[in-house]
Structure prediction request, 195 residues.
Amino acid sequence: MGVRVIDFTRVLSGPHATRMLTDLGAQVIKVEPPAGDMTRFTYPRINSQSTYFVQQNVGKLNVSIDMDKPAGVELAARLIASADVVVENFRPGVMKRLGLDYERFERQCPRLIYTSISGYGASGPWTSRRAYAPVVNAETGITKHQGDVRGGAYANDPHSHGDVYTAVETASAILAALYQRERTGRGQYIDVSMA
Prediction:
Protein backbone atom coordinates (compact mmCIF):
# COMPACT_ATOMS: atom_id res chain seq x y z
CA MET A 1 0.00 0.00 0.00
CA GLY A 2 1.33 3.44 -0.91
CA VAL A 3 1.68 6.55 1.20
CA ARG A 4 -0.75 9.41 0.53
CA VAL A 5 0.47 12.93 1.32
CA ILE A 6 -1.78 16.00 1.34
CA ASP A 7 0.38 19.03 0.55
CA PHE A 8 -0.87 22.42 1.76
CA THR A 9 2.50 24.10 1.12
CA ARG A 10 3.78 26.86 -1.09
CA VAL A 11 6.98 28.70 -2.09
CA LEU A 12 9.98 26.35 -1.56
CA SER A 13 10.58 24.57 1.77
CA GLY A 14 7.28 22.67 1.79
CA PRO A 15 7.00 21.93 -1.94
CA HIS A 16 10.62 20.74 -2.00
CA ALA A 17 9.99 18.41 0.97
CA THR A 18 6.90 16.92 -0.66
CA ARG A 19 8.73 16.70 -4.01
CA MET A 20 11.28 14.46 -2.29
CA LEU A 21 8.42 12.30 -0.97
CA THR A 22 7.01 12.12 -4.52
CA ASP A 23 10.42 11.03 -5.78
CA LEU A 24 10.41 8.26 -3.16
CA GLY A 25 7.05 6.94 -4.41
CA ALA A 26 4.43 8.71 -2.30
CA GLN A 27 1.20 9.89 -3.87
CA VAL A 28 1.25 13.64 -3.18
CA ILE A 29 -1.89 15.71 -3.64
CA LYS A 30 -1.05 19.41 -3.77
CA VAL A 31 -3.85 21.71 -2.61
CA GLU A 32 -3.90 25.09 -4.35
CA PRO A 33 -6.18 28.12 -4.10
CA PRO A 34 -8.57 28.70 -7.03
CA ALA A 35 -6.17 31.19 -8.66
CA GLY A 36 -3.36 28.64 -8.47
CA ASP A 37 -0.21 28.43 -6.39
CA MET A 38 1.74 31.71 -6.43
CA THR A 39 4.79 30.01 -7.91
CA ARG A 40 2.83 29.09 -11.06
CA PHE A 41 3.33 32.71 -12.09
CA THR A 42 7.09 33.00 -11.57
CA TYR A 43 9.81 33.19 -14.22
CA PRO A 44 11.57 31.76 -16.16
CA ARG A 45 8.85 30.09 -18.18
CA ILE A 46 8.88 27.42 -20.86
CA ASN A 47 5.73 26.86 -22.92
CA SER A 48 3.93 29.32 -20.60
CA GLN A 49 4.72 27.21 -17.52
CA SER A 50 6.87 28.34 -14.61
CA THR A 51 9.97 26.17 -14.50
CA TYR A 52 10.17 26.81 -10.74
CA PHE A 53 6.65 25.47 -10.18
CA VAL A 54 7.14 22.47 -12.46
CA GLN A 55 10.48 21.54 -10.87
CA GLN A 56 9.04 21.58 -7.33
CA ASN A 57 5.72 19.92 -8.16
CA VAL A 58 6.46 17.35 -10.86
CA GLY A 59 4.68 14.07 -10.22
CA LYS A 60 2.14 15.54 -7.80
CA LEU A 61 -1.61 15.51 -8.27
CA ASN A 62 -3.22 18.94 -7.97
CA VAL A 63 -6.58 20.03 -6.61
CA SER A 64 -7.97 23.55 -6.32
CA ILE A 65 -9.82 24.27 -3.07
CA ASP A 66 -11.24 27.59 -1.89
CA MET A 67 -10.48 27.34 1.81
CA ASP A 68 -12.19 30.68 2.41
CA LYS A 69 -15.51 28.86 1.99
CA PRO A 70 -17.01 26.25 4.36
CA ALA A 71 -17.41 23.73 1.54
CA GLY A 72 -13.72 24.11 0.71
CA VAL A 73 -12.69 23.59 4.32
CA GLU A 74 -14.86 20.47 4.50
CA LEU A 75 -13.31 19.11 1.29
CA ALA A 76 -9.85 19.76 2.76
CA ALA A 77 -10.93 17.91 5.93
CA ARG A 78 -12.00 14.89 3.88
CA LEU A 79 -8.64 14.88 2.11
CA ILE A 80 -6.80 15.05 5.45
CA ALA A 81 -8.89 12.17 6.82
CA SER A 82 -7.83 10.06 3.81
CA ALA A 83 -4.12 10.82 4.25
CA ASP A 84 -1.11 9.13 5.77
CA VAL A 85 0.77 12.44 5.91
CA VAL A 86 -0.23 16.11 5.90
CA VAL A 87 2.33 18.87 5.29
CA GLU A 88 1.43 22.55 5.72
CA ASN A 89 3.46 25.73 5.92
CA PHE A 90 0.94 28.40 6.78
CA ARG A 91 1.73 30.75 9.66
CA PRO A 92 1.13 29.01 13.01
CA GLY A 93 -2.55 29.10 13.90
CA VAL A 94 -4.00 29.27 10.38
CA MET A 95 -4.92 25.57 10.18
CA LYS A 96 -6.38 25.75 13.72
CA ARG A 97 -8.52 28.75 12.74
CA LEU A 98 -9.80 26.74 9.76
CA GLY A 99 -10.51 23.74 12.00
CA LEU A 100 -7.94 21.65 10.11
CA ASP A 101 -5.25 21.32 12.78
CA TYR A 102 -3.72 18.12 14.14
CA GLU A 103 -5.91 18.12 17.25
CA ARG A 104 -9.04 17.77 15.10
CA PHE A 105 -7.74 14.61 13.42
CA GLU A 106 -5.58 13.02 16.14
CA ARG A 107 -8.34 10.73 17.50
CA GLN A 108 -10.20 10.26 14.22
CA CYS A 109 -7.00 9.35 12.34
CA PRO A 110 -4.53 7.95 14.90
CA ARG A 111 -2.06 6.89 12.17
CA LEU A 112 -1.88 10.41 10.68
CA ILE A 113 1.51 12.13 10.51
CA TYR A 114 0.80 15.88 10.50
CA THR A 115 3.71 18.19 9.72
CA SER A 116 3.81 21.97 10.16
CA ILE A 117 6.66 24.07 8.76
CA SER A 118 7.08 27.65 9.93
CA GLY A 119 9.81 30.19 10.43
CA TYR A 120 10.16 29.80 14.17
CA GLY A 121 8.02 26.83 15.23
CA ALA A 122 4.47 26.41 16.49
CA SER A 123 5.20 27.85 19.94
CA GLY A 124 7.59 30.29 21.52
CA PRO A 125 8.20 34.04 21.52
CA TRP A 126 8.75 34.32 17.75
CA THR A 127 6.00 31.98 16.59
CA SER A 128 3.94 34.77 14.99
CA ARG A 129 6.85 36.16 12.95
CA ARG A 130 6.77 35.53 9.23
CA ALA A 131 9.87 34.07 7.66
CA TYR A 132 11.29 33.47 4.24
CA ALA A 133 14.70 31.99 3.50
CA PRO A 134 16.53 35.35 3.20
CA VAL A 135 15.37 36.32 6.71
CA VAL A 136 16.33 32.95 8.16
CA ASN A 137 19.65 33.03 6.30
CA ALA A 138 20.47 36.41 7.86
CA GLU A 139 19.41 35.36 11.37
CA THR A 140 21.36 32.10 11.28
CA GLY A 141 24.56 33.58 9.82
CA ILE A 142 24.38 32.09 6.33
CA THR A 143 24.25 35.57 4.78
CA LYS A 144 27.39 36.64 6.66
CA HIS A 145 29.16 33.45 5.60
CA GLN A 146 28.22 34.09 1.97
CA GLY A 147 29.64 37.61 2.35
CA ASP A 148 32.86 36.29 3.87
CA VAL A 149 33.28 33.87 0.97
CA ARG A 150 32.73 36.70 -1.52
CA GLY A 151 35.29 39.05 -0.02
CA GLY A 152 33.11 40.77 2.55
CA ALA A 153 30.14 41.86 0.44
CA TYR A 154 26.96 40.47 1.96
CA ALA A 155 24.75 38.90 -0.63
CA ASN A 156 21.51 37.00 -0.77
CA ASP A 157 22.00 33.26 -0.88
CA PRO A 158 21.45 32.18 -4.50
CA HIS A 159 20.70 28.62 -3.41
CA SER A 160 18.07 29.39 -0.75
CA HIS A 161 19.79 27.21 1.84
CA GLY A 162 17.21 28.06 4.51
CA ASP A 163 14.44 26.54 2.40
CA VAL A 164 16.40 23.57 1.10
CA TYR A 165 17.78 22.55 4.51
CA THR A 166 14.29 22.85 5.98
CA ALA A 167 12.90 20.67 3.19
CA VAL A 168 15.50 17.96 3.78
CA GLU A 169 14.87 17.98 7.54
CA THR A 170 11.10 17.87 6.93
CA ALA A 171 11.28 14.92 4.56
CA SER A 172 13.67 13.09 6.91
CA ALA A 173 11.37 13.65 9.89
CA ILE A 174 8.39 12.35 7.93
CA LEU A 175 10.31 9.24 6.85
CA ALA A 176 11.32 8.60 10.47
CA ALA A 177 7.70 9.06 11.58
CA LEU A 178 6.50 6.62 8.91
CA TYR A 179 9.05 4.08 10.15
CA GLN A 180 7.93 4.59 13.74
CA ARG A 181 4.29 4.25 12.69
CA GLU A 182 5.07 0.85 11.18
CA ARG A 183 6.38 -0.24 14.57
CA THR A 184 3.75 1.39 16.82
CA GLY A 185 0.69 1.95 14.65
CA ARG A 186 0.61 5.60 15.77
CA GLY A 187 1.07 8.80 13.83
CA GLN A 188 2.40 12.02 15.32
CA TYR A 189 2.68 15.78 15.01
CA ILE A 190 5.94 17.16 13.61
CA ASP A 191 6.84 20.83 14.13
CA VAL A 192 9.62 22.03 11.80
CA SER A 193 11.23 25.44 12.25
CA MET A 194 13.24 27.07 9.47
CA ALA A 195 15.41 28.94 11.98
In short: The chain has one domain: 4-130+161-193. The longest strand covers residues 27-32.
